[in-house]
Design brief:
The chain is α/β, with parallel strands linked by helices and 287 residues long. The protein has helices at 11-23, 39-51, 79-88, 99-102, 121-124, 128-143, 155-167, 197-202, 205-218, 223-237, and strands spanning 6-8, 28-33, 54-59, 93-95, 147-151, 173-177, 241-249, 263-271, 274-282. Strand 5, helix 7 and strand 6 form a beta-alpha-beta unit. Helix 9 runs antiparallel to helix 10. Bound molecules: adenosine monophosphate. Adenosine monophosphate binds next to helix 2 and strand 5.
Length: 287
């Protein structure tokens, strides 16, 4: 077993550690998270280790990406457990800043992204992607890693991050990693812990709904026909409401009706008090 994972809480300490590694010619990867880690997060650390010599994970429950009626205060916080999991996964450093370290008095800057941040979660959670883009911009500039790794589980978030990193000339490679799932198809998520056993039994229908739309698209049906039926199926399965279930261009997130290019099917739905999101990709059969 390696020595206990080091935890730093200030940007100055983070930069000093990164500089120390850089001076030895080592490359660095960053894995931003909000903690309450699960195997999905740890798979990002594994991916990061494929890209760089040293891996920094951040754990920061970012208040600016939560709406006023969202779960910021009850979001699970378990730093000791997170640190042990990160250490076991081969992570080299945990950056766990306080809210005042990230947003000191007088903080007044927001990064907003047009286009890919509009619609889907951008409509249902106003201000969410501005919060994400601002905090991820800060994390990228604080650590200045060679690469940063993000999950495809949050496909729209990944598209937003790729967009602003390119637009702002942030010299960090953005790497996407596939979604890790439970055996029954449910995507791993820190929010899965909110569910009652009854809700947990219903939750896999989310992925089944996506798979159904994917099969329909492959068979030549249109999104306009498939999506309302899939939404109906989720409501019948026990979901309280469906924020959206849509087929989009995998890159631009523009609405798509037929499988005439690589697409992403994205869904957000509520089970009791828990909001779950998921997405899968479908590509046209090669002719
Ligand atoms: P979060 O802590 O939920 O903000 O997520 C931190 C990172 O982990 C994001 O890049 C997520 O996309 C990624 N992530 C969350 N769940 C999964 C999963 N089931 N599989 C792979 N990556 C994930």
């Amino acid at each position: 077993m390696t020595a206990e994972l080091d935890i730093v809480r200030s940007v100055a300490e983070l930069r000093a550690r990164v500089k120390y590694w850089r001076d030895q010619g080592l490359t660095i990867a960053l894995v931003p998270t909000m903690g309450a880690l699960h195997q999905g997060h740890l798979s990002l650390v594994t991916k990061a280790l494929e890209h760089a010599d040293r891996v920094v994970a951040s754990v920061f429950v970012n208040p600016t990406q939560f709406g006023p009626n969202e779960d910021f205060s009850r979001y699970p916080r378990q730093e000791e457990r997170d640190a042990a999991l990160l250490e076991g996964a081969g992570c080299h450093l945990l950056f766990a800043p306080t809210v005042t370290e990230m947003y000191p008095d007088g903080f007044a800057t927001t990064v907003t992204v047009a286009g890919v941040a509009d619609g889907l979660c951008g409509t249902v959670r106003p201000g969410h992607f501005a919060g994400v883009a601002t905090v991820v911009t800060k994390l990228l500039l604080q650590a200045l890693p060679d690469v940063a790794v993000f999950g495809e589980k949050d496909w729209q978030q990944l598209a937003v991050i790729r967009r602003f990193a390119r637009d702002l000339d942030i010299p960090v490679g953005i790497v996407g990693a596939p979604t890790l799932r439970e055996a029954d198809g449910l995507a791993l998520s820190s929010r899965n812990a909110y569910m009652t056993p009854e809700e947990r039994a219903i939750a896999p229908w989310l992925k089944r709904g996506l798979d159904g739309v994917a099969d329909g698209l492959r068979a030549g049906a249109s999104a306009a026909d498939l999506c309302p039926k899939a939404i109906d199926g989720l409501l019948k399965a026990g979901f309280a409401s469906v924020d959206y279930l849509e087929v989009r261009d995998a890159e631009t997130l523009a609405p798509v009706d037929k499988l005439d290019r690589p697409v992403r099917i994205l869904v957000a739905a509520r089970l009791g008090k828990t909001r779950l999101i998921d997405n899968i990709g479908v590509v046209p059969a090669s002719r």
